[in-house]
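Per reviewer request, we include the raw input and output of the structure prediction for the construct analysed in the revised manuscript.
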Amino acid sequence: MKFWQTSKRQISLEKTLVMAILNVTPDSFSDGGRFNSIDSALKQTEKLISEGADILDIGGESTRPNSAGVSIEEEKRRVVPIIEAITKRFEIPISIDTSKSKVAEAAVNGGAEIINDVSGLRFDEKIGKVAVKYKTGLVLMHLRGEFETMHTQEPVAEILSEVSNGFCWSIEKAKSFGVTDNQISLDIGIGFSKTFEQNLELLAKLDKLIENFPNYPMLIGTSRKSFIGKILNEPNAEKRLSGGLSSIAIAVFNGAKIIRVHDVKESVDAIRVAEAIKNWSD
């Protein structure tokens, strides 16, 4: 049986995992400021678990276009007390969404067991050391550029080879610190330094990428993103659910093993249907 190793458990990959988003930032693109108190975060956690979330992904720094970075101390102040409160009350695995090693370590000490690094160890490679020290799960996402420029990169010509090369770099860097294969998950980074057409191509050809990286569960995050808004002509991120569910179903059919979402109940239903159909395609 395949599994994803975290610092606290082995998470089975027999079914697609739902990673629920819990942003504790004042400025995230669709839910900023809604869950940045302990009480509101606990209530939302209870709701997400009841709807079928397998993992909770907690972030304290927005990575939306034009967002401003925050200091290490401010990011820790936002996430650590909430992670501590959730782990005291619930058993759900917690992922810390950060690209700073000191934030990651503080979050893990507070109860997180997975580190979700949008930079794939490019912004702060010491995250790899934290993952080894605590034996956490580690999500390596593909992007190009630095924090301030990741949304303004000139597009590359061949996005599949670019993402593949980026994954190879991140995996090699992680392994150089001693991270093991069963700790690593990969994320193609929808919406990060990619054109509208490249986002679509990556989802359409996801199975080809997965064939090249069979040892690592693929995580996909399309929820409420702007490429869906462009297709549907919908500027309001919270009104992109139906389009997001379509992208989730396609990702699961093409082999994604972890889906990162805002809307858990609806996503669980879409995944169930996609898995049922996929089981007849093999």
